[in-house]
Please model this.
Amino acid sequence: MADQTQDPAPGDALLVPVGESVTLRNTVANAIETAAEEGFAEAHFVTPVTWHHVGDVDRAAREAVRRLLDRVSVWADEDTPEGGPTVRTNVIGSDEYLFSPDDYAAVLAEYADEHEIERILVDPEYSPGGNVPLLRPMEVALAKRGFEVSEAPTSRPVRRSRLTRAGGALQFGLLFGVSFLFYQLLGGFSIVTGDSFDFFYELFSGSLAAGIVAGTLYTVSLSDRTRIRSLLPQFVRLVLFVPYLLYEIVKSNVVITYIILHPKLPIDPRLTRVRSAVWGGPALTTLANSITLTPGTLTVRTEGQDLYVHGLFAGAREGIAAGSLERAVRFVFYGRRTAAIPSPEERGDYEELQGPDAAPAPPDGGEEELP
Amino acid sequence: MNEFRLAAILALLAGGVFFTFVSIVGVLRLPDVYARAHTASQTDTLGAGLVVGAVVLAYGAETEVIKAVLLLVFIFITNPTAAHAVTRAAYEEGIEPWTEGDERR
Model:
């Protein structure tokens, strides 16, 4: 147990308890920032868990935690600057039954002592064990144990003001640049090919148009914290992704054409559910749209990371289960490292909601019935 | 314009028309709204794609080419969004996807 004395020299690691919360993404970013600024060598992201169930519930909980930590480590790697802290993720408390915030604090303290950590950063929206008024929240319980505890400044109103101050200029500039370029493109680049009147006219009207677009939309268009550093490689990988997507589209178009023109119409449509391993709005949208763009598969609904995909025939569904598009989208947004994540079928994240192997009905929408 | 280029343009146009035709046949033959949405996306991907390809060839190396490609990019973004919106509406209405053995609707 850490002693109560105020030791000015910080340990060389930062402990961040993480769990599902709306501010998780920002907490990760903030933790890396803090660790880099204060010179911590390591940032430990740990999830205290409580699985006292057996069988499937247990497995589902383990899966959920594993996915959460995968996501955290991808984000953390994305944020870590050159020579920044080493990122570690860990699951703790799996052999105990945790109930109150104090229990969570106890296992966190144990972990911290084991790794000689004195500084803890907590996600304000993450409150394991609940925020029961009678019980001390986890932060307080941790502080009582002699740790230096601070909250990641990520509560939503705070985050908004941070965004407009820190990322605002960058977002505005980026959107302005793209809009200006687009305007000149539609004008046939007469800004460079035309005479001096053209130049000033295009410069003025282009700046005006781009200024209006950027001024009104910069807070909307890029909601994540924009990072030039990751934007450029993402764009390059997107350019690589396009030919692959086109190839997939052509391939499945040919198959669908065969099926439609076949006198017997050999289709076997089924609704499936895939819990996709991509995170965040842009990546999920890209995946869902790529799936729909490929004839034979169609994203009917999304619920968080769950995509309800309608597959027209067995081959199309196998493609979804094998997750090749998912992998490609992950490559675009997170780089080549993430290709190692297994396919939805291997993860157990793919299930058919109709047909012989039908899983239970989805939470809402149509009730499924066997044929 | 040489004959080879003309032939390529005609081939692309014919391909575009063919896939659009197949897509229409599909809309008529397939059993329900979900299955039809699959084939409707054919029109926009290969149908429009090949026709835009023909346009690019016909214009040669002018700025219109960039506009044509941009057109394709926007089609590729809006088409799945529309297909998704239609089928999601159907799903939320409680329409069950047709499966093998059901009555044709």
